[in-house]
Each structure stands twice: as C-alpha cells, then as structure tokens.
C-alpha cells in the first residue's frame, strides 16, 4: 500500500489504527512484559485492605503493607535468551569470500543486537529490526514491539503491506521541555513523518518524506571517487521491517505466567507483613483497662512495654493473651508450588533440579531437565531462522551495491547453551570419526567455537 496523505481518508485511517492499537490487549501485554522484566510488578501498587464499617473493603494505613517482588519472570526470560543465544550465533557457507563479507557484518555488535532482540521477542511476542543505510552501508536498528503497528498483507503475517511506528520523544523547542508523540508511516515508497496532536491529529513534520536508500553506486561502487555514489534516493520495493517472533501466535511470555508471578509476590508480601505484626500475632484480652481507647493502649504497650489496669466493682483488672501462630512452613510450601508452576508454565528449567545432584549427572538426566526449554526454543528458532532468511535479502542487496559476491547459500546455527557432560560428548565425537564428515565432528565438539578456523588449523598442520 502507498499512502497519499493529501487525501483526508489516509490520515483518518492512520489515526484510527493508532487509536485502536493503543487500547488493544496486545499492546497492553507488551508493556506488561517490559514492566515485569524491569521489576515493575502489580504488587508495588497494591494497597492493604480491610473490611470497613459498611462491610466493604477499604484501604488501611496503620498496618504493615510490604511489597515484595521475587522476579522469577526476569529469570525465565534471561534463562531462555541465554539458552538460545548465550553463545554467539554462527553461520556456514561454502564461499570463502562471501563468508568474509558476512563476518564483517555479523560482528559482536550484531550478536548483541540478536540477544537483545530475543529478549524483546519474549517480552513483546514480536520484535523488530529495521535494515537501514548509514555511512554508505547497511546497518540494523532495533525497534520496540509496542511501538510498531504492522499492516500484514497475508493471514500468516509473513509480508508487510505497511507499518506505523508511534513513539514519544522529548522536545526542547522554544526553551520548553515537553513530551511529543512522533509517528512514522512506512510504505513501499519510504517513510512519512508526523507528530500526533490531540486536537488536530496527524501533522506533517520535516523531512516529511524520505526514501530508504540515500545512495546510488557509480561504476566503482561506494568506494569510487567524486561524490562517493551519493546521488539520489531509492526504495527497497518493500517495507524494510523484519519481524522476529517468539512463536507463531506472537504471544508475549508474560501471558503464560503473570498470574503465577503475582501470586508468588502476594504470598511473600503477606508473609513479610505477618512477621512485622508481632504484637498482632497475640490477641490481647483486656479486663478493666485504665485508659480511654485501644489506640492509646497500643501506644502505651509499644512505648513502655506495659499497660495499667484497674479494679471496678470488686472485679480486678487483667490482661490475657491468646497466641496466634504463623506457620512459616505453610508459606514455604506455597512459595515452592508457585515457583515450580512458573517454571512449568513458562517452559524453563530448574538449575537446582534433583537430577543434577549426586556428583556427575549423566547426559540423559541433563537433557530431561532441559526438555521443556528446548521445546520452546525449537519454536522460537524456527521463527528466527525464517526472519534471518528475510534479513539476508537486504544483506544481498547491500552486497550487490558494493559490487561484492552475493546469492550464496548461508546456514545460521544457534549454539544452544546447555550443560554438557563433556567427557561423554568428546568420546562420541571420537567414535564418530570415519562415520560422519570431519567437519560435522568438529562442529559438535564442545571446545570448538569457530569451525572454519579449527579446520584451517588442522589443514595448516595444527593438532
């Protein structure tokens, strides 16, 4: 779709899409995922309530109201991200020159980008890379999931017709600091720039419109003389946003565990409150108290550790206690149940699993412990592999502009970070020599990070 913003209907369509997205459950879950990862949980906004005089709940301010956050969700996201991308992503191609070009592009900064993108995919369900040109070459910009409104061309969400980006910036114009809402509309022709005004809607701002590629190669490519090939603007012929999905349903991970995380926080907070309510763990029975009200009684008890009683009509004053026990084992049991439920519903693993105890666990026990996180990683990797293939289309266009080799097959390898019984793996590698290729054996050896460099070392006479 190509927008003509001189037509009122196009502006109204974009404004309605933004309004619909802002109030959607999908965006709310994305923001919740980011908040919970950062430790901003619902428990922090809870008020302690009691039943009031009219039988309705009302806030109370004279009781302990602790707010404990045990952020198992963050641990789950980090666990999954590091399992899939904790070790650098590697790639394999038969063309040495092509491999060299890709090595320069897919450097450590790209690996960091991929790892952060994986966290976004778990927090938002959908993460985005914007391939753009900077300093005459391609680079990749990460965009937050809750900023992008995708207009999909197909039911499977594989091809974009258009996309809208909505984000806030701080504007310092006229010596005044204010938050403004920027809107960028992506279509096949380029990017259209706006601000969103509460009263008048979309207002165009400079540069109003720009194409995606601000360069044209001359006969020598981008390294030529003169103006270095920077002649005019071009487009990709498609919307240059690549979606990286957590799964085919684009569901944020928080959707699977939020209620369990909230329950864990609530139990911990209530236990903390109980521990601070030591005077309230004992019910006090007063007989002929020498005071006006219970507030004064509590104040005297806390300040002096004593209260005054009196005799009335021959009945002696007295203070009796009824002990209320707080059983910490009950809390501990419920906390353990919640933590196990978070691991199971979030498809993670327990690093303190009993299968790892007892000295040297065998590989079957390790694989059993990782089975859930491995299943979930399989689905995420399937989506990421498809997205990387789409990203490679832009890399190929960049290589062509530079006059470099392209159109070569490349295989991306996710080196999952699983505990290994290295001795058993190495033994299997040795036993596989002569049955499978040397390259396959080296690629599966636990000490090898760069297969090509390792093979070159053997070829040069290394051991």
Strand order of the largest sheet: 6-7-8-9-10
Order of helices and strands: HHEEHEHHEEEEEEEEHEHEHHHEHHH
Number of strands: 14
Content-based structural category: alpha+beta
Low-confidence stretches: 217-230
Rounded mean pLDDT is 83
Q: What fraction of residues sit in β-strands?
A: 15-25%
CA radius of gyration is 31 Å
The N- and C-terminal alpha carbons lie at a distance of 58 Å
Shape field = flat
Number of helices: 13
Largest sheet: 5 strands, antiparallel
Roughly what percent helix? 25-40%
Short description:
The protein has 463 residues and is of the alpha+beta class. Helices cover 40% and strands 19% of the residues. The chain is built from 13 helices and 14 strands.
Structural write-up:
With 463 residues, this protein is an alpha+beta fold. 40% of the residues lie in helices and 19% in strands. The strands form 5 sheets. A 5-stranded antiparallel beta sheet has the order 6-7-8-9-10, covered by helices on one side. The radius of gyration is 31 Å and the shape is flat.
Which labels suit this protein?
alpha+beta; flat; 19% strand; 13 helices
Helix-strand layout with pairing:
Elements: H1 8-22, H2 25-37, E1 49-51, E2 57-59, H3 72-85, E3 90-92, H4 96-105, H5 108-124, E4 126-134, E5 137-143, E6 148-152, E7 160-171, E8 178-187, E9 190-197, E10 201-210, E11 242-245, H6 254-276, E12 282-287, H7 294-304, E13 318-323, H8 328-345, H9 363-369, H10 371-401, E14 411-413, H11 422-432, H12 438-443, H13 451-459
Antiparallel strand pairs: 1-2, 3-14, 4-5, 4-11, 6-7, 7-8, 8-9, 9-10, 12-13
Helix pairs in contact: 2-5, 3-5, 6-8
């Amino acid at each position: 779709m190509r927008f003509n913003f001189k037509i009122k209907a196009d502006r109204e369509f974009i404004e309605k899409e933004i309004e619909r997205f802002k109030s959607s459950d999908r965006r709310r879950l994305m923001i919740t995922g980011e908040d919970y990862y950062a430790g901003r949980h619902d428990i922090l906004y809870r008020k302690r309530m009691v039943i009031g005089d009219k039988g309705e709940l009302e806030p109370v301010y004279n009781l302990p109201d602790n707010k404990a956050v045990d952020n198992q969700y963050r641990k789950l996201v980090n666990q999954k991200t590091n399992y899939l991308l904790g070790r650098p992503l590697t790639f394999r191609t038969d063309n040495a020159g092509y491999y060299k070009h890709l090595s320069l592009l897919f450097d450590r900064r790209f690996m960091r980008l991929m790892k952060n993108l994986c966290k976004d995919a778990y927090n938002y369900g959908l993460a985005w890379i914007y391939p753009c040109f900077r300093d005459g070459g391609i680079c990749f910009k990460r965009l937050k999931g809750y900023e992008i409104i995708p207009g999909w061309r197909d039911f499977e969400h594989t091809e974009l017709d258009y996309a809208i980006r909505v984000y806030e910036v701080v504007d310092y114009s006229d010596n005044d600091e204010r938050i403004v809402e920027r809107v960028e509309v992506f279509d096949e022709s380029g990017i259209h720039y706006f601000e969103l005004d509460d009263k008048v809607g979309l207002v165009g701002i400079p540069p109003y419109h720009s194409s995606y590629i601000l360069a044209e190669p001359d006969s020598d490519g981008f390294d030529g003389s003169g103006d270095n090939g920077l002649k005019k603007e071009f487009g990709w012929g498609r919307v240059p946003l690549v979606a990286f999905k957590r799964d085919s349903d684009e569901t944020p991970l928080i959707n699977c565990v939020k209620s369990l995380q909230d329950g864990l926080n609530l139990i911990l907070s209530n236990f903390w409150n109980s521990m601070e309510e030591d005077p309230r763990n004992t019910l006090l029975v007063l007989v002929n108290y020498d005071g006006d009200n219970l507030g004064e009684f509590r104040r005297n008890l806390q300040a002096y550790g004593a209260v005054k009683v009196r005799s009335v009509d021959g009945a002696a004053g007295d203070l009796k206690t009824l002990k209320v026990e707080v059983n910490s084992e009950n809390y501990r049991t419920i906390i353990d149940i919640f933590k196990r439920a978070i691991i199971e519903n979030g498809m993670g693993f327990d690093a303190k699993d009993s299968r790892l105890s007892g000295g040297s666990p065998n590989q079957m026990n390790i694989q059993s412990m990782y089975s859930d996180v491995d299943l979930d990683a399989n689905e995420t990797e399937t989506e990421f592999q498809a997205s990387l293939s789409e990203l490679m289309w832009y890399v190929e266009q960049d290589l062509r502009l530079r006059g470099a080799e392209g159109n070569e097959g490349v295989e991306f390898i996710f080196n999952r970070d699983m505990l290994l019984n290295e001795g058993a793996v190495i033994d299997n590698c040795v036993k596989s020599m002569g049955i499978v290729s040397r390259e396959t054996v080296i690629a599966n050896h636990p000490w090898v990070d760069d297969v090509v460099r390792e093979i070159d070392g053997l070829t040069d006479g290394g051991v």
